[in-house]
Amino acid sequence: MIKLTCLACNIGYTLANGICQLNTGILNCQLINAYRTACLLCKHGYYLLEGKCKEVSSLCNGYDPTFGLCLACKVGYINYGGQCLDPQCANQQGDVCLQCKKYFKVHNSGLCYFSDENCISATTR
């Protein structure tokens, strides 16, 4: 007798021991344990932490899937211990700069840009 082992499931189902099972509520989990209590493998863009899938920073250009640390950052950000930071940001929470350093303002892109209060016209380079 030939036994088939499933490799991928439809949306709403999770692969566990070669069988598609209705998703258990562990979001972004690609593979769950046999007891359906913890995730073993997360979807791309997520990493595993204590049986759950956590989203990788949107500022990453490549990440370590084991720890979710950024290997490289998007342009304008620096990698500091696996986190992508705006070097001109004074208060960054996650991927969002809440307050820039002196002489800088938060742009709608999320990056801090130089702001001279006496300047009435400027251009980017």
Spans of 5+ residues with little confidence (pLDDT < 50)? none
Helix-strand sequence? EEEEEEEEEEEE
Roughly what is the average pLDDT, rounded to an integer?
Answer: 86
Total of DSSP H or I helical runs spanning 4+ residues: 0
Strand content: 35-45%
Largest sheet: 2 strands, antiparallel
How many structural domains are formed by the residues?
2
Please report the distance between the alpha carbons of the first and last residues. 68 Å
- How large, in whole angstroms, is the Cα Rg? 21 Å
Q: Shape from CA axes?
A: elongated
Q: What's the count of strands?
A: 12
What would you call the structural class?
mainly beta
The neighbouring-strand order within the major sheet is: 1-2
**Secondary structure: helix percent:** under 10%
Please outline the helices and strands.
Elements: E1 13-16, E2 19-22, E3 29-32, E4 39-42, E5 46-49, E6 52-55, E7 78-80, E8 83-85, E9 89-93, E10 96-100, E11 104-106, E12 112-114
Antiparallel strand pairs: 1-2, 3-4, 5-6, 7-8, 9-10, 11-12
